[in-house]
Amino acid sequence: MSIMHATIVGAGVAGLTTALSLAAKGISSDIIEQAPQLGEVGAGLQLSPNATRVLAALGVLAEIERQWLEPRSIRLASGIDLRSLADLPAGDFARNRWRAPYGVLHRSTLQQALLRAALNEPLCKLHLGHRIDGVGADALAHVTGRRPDLVVGADGAWSVARDAVAGAPNVSFSGNIAWRFTVASADAPAFLSRSGVTAHLGPRAHLVSYPLNEIDGFNLVAIAAGARSDESWALQADAARRAMLLEQFSGWHRDIRTVLAGAENPTFWPLYQASEGRWQNGRDTVLIGDAAHAMMPFSAQGAAMAIEDAFSLAHHVSRTALPSALSSFETERKARAARVKARGDFNRFAYHARGPVRIARDLVLSLRSPEKLAADLDWLYGHKIDG
Question: Entry's Gene3D superfamilies (predicted)?
Fold first, then answer.
């Protein structure tokens, strides 16, 4: 084993999964989080089989399964007239094809399951309410009382840990805005599927919706391209931002516009993405998750990539000397993240298509069988990481 102890900066999905993955290899960790307590951020979350396979290996999946919903299908539909364009079966189909389930859940369900597992793991120690200005060994040891062999930057798109990695990625506004909100089941219109995930597609925008067991309602995320923002983080949508939302979805089906207009307490999320750059310093510090590769949510893989990163990192550092382990981790995960990003970029082009391109897209989708749609995702959902 190349290391005995790590300090992880950030106690979100990436950080907690890293702590549990390292513990599974006999490596202890301190997890430092600036928030005084871990609350929910956002609302809904999709977990595809490549992520749930890792959570099962860490012993966390069973608790999550008691609360989540497994969609029967993942459907693409027109935002203009609501007609179905393509339908990928999920549920038992996902379990049989990819040997792991596909689930939708409240983000806090995953966060709390990971937190409880970390609190019950003797090799993990959580330090809440500690804001750090740098990730040098001395600064971290001042908080934890122990100098780490490895520092893991799992602190998101606005990572402090990036400062310790020369040539690390930068983040920039993508030109896309997400409006997130929920709708109670009792108030939900008929076009919202009670048993699946649906992405309604339209010119320069799309709307994702799915049911959440935990709130007896639906999670909705409306994403529009070409919007501007002077903000860097999520905030409640005021009247001006609500007007922007309706403008971005002008021309859409009236039932969808009615839901958007009546959204209660929507949050306005400027979407940021990371540039190319180094993920590790060649010695003792590595970036994972959004700190390394923040990407657009067009493949619903943000959380999944962080979970994969964590499990892969633990595998590498438990086998070889640290500099070599960090280098091989970076090479492996960069290739994977680049392919996922490329798929997301393609989805963004297809989802937001206009004019003749939209017509061609709809025709191509109508000709794709469920089997062919699934085969296109085998590389993504069937991905396995050595444990």
Answer: FAD/NAD(P)-binding domain
Share of the chain above pLDDT 70, in %: 96
Is residue 328 within 8 A of residue 311, CB to CB? The reply is: no
Q: What is the pLDDT of residues 346-356, one digit of tens each?
A: 888 888 888 87
Q: Strands of 14-96 (E only): list them.
A: 28-33, 44-47, 73-78, 84-89
Smallest CA-to-CA distance from 268 within 295, 230, 235, 225 is with 235
Q: What is the CATH number of the domain that holds 24?
A: 3.50.50.60
* 244 found inside a domain: no
Mean pLDDT to the nearest integer, 219-246: 79
**CA dist list (Å): 10 to 19, 99, 151, 294, 346:** 10, 30, 11, 15, 31
DSSP code of 95? H
Which letter, b or e, does each residue of 238-247 get, where b requires 16 or more Cβ atoms within 10 Å of its Cβ? eeebbebbee
Residue 124 lies in a domain: yes
Whether 84 is covered by a domain: the verdict is no
C-beta of residue 281 within 8 angstroms of C-beta of residue 164? yes
Yes or no: say if 140 and 7 are a contact pair by the CB < 8 Å rule: yes
Once rounded to an integer, what is the mean pLDDT over residues 42-54?
93
Q: Is residue 87 part of a domain?
A: no
Q: What is the dihedral of CA 325, 331, 337, 342, to 10 degrees?
A: 180
Instruction: Please tell me whether the overall predicted TM-score, pTM, comes out greater than 0.90 for this model.
Output: yes
SS3 249: coil
For residue 142, the tally of other CB atoms under 10 A from its CB is 11
- Domain count for the chain, please give it: 1
Beta bridge partners of 104: 46, 69
Confirm if 155 and 288 have CB atoms less than 8 A apart: no
Q: How confident is the model at residue 40 (pLDDT cuts 50, 70, 90)?
A: low
Which residues face 130 on adjacent strands? none
Q: List the one residue out of 1, 6, 4 whose CA is nearest residue 30.
A: 6
State the first-to-last Cα distance of the chain, in angstroms, to the nearest integer.
14
Tell me what the mean pLDDT of segment 374-385 comes to: 96
SS3 317: helix
pLDDT of residue 358: 82
Assess contact for 170 and 275: CB atoms under 8 A: yes
Q: Are 124 and 31 in contact (CB under 8 A)?
A: yes
Range of the structural domain that residue 313 is part of = 5-70+107-170+274-349
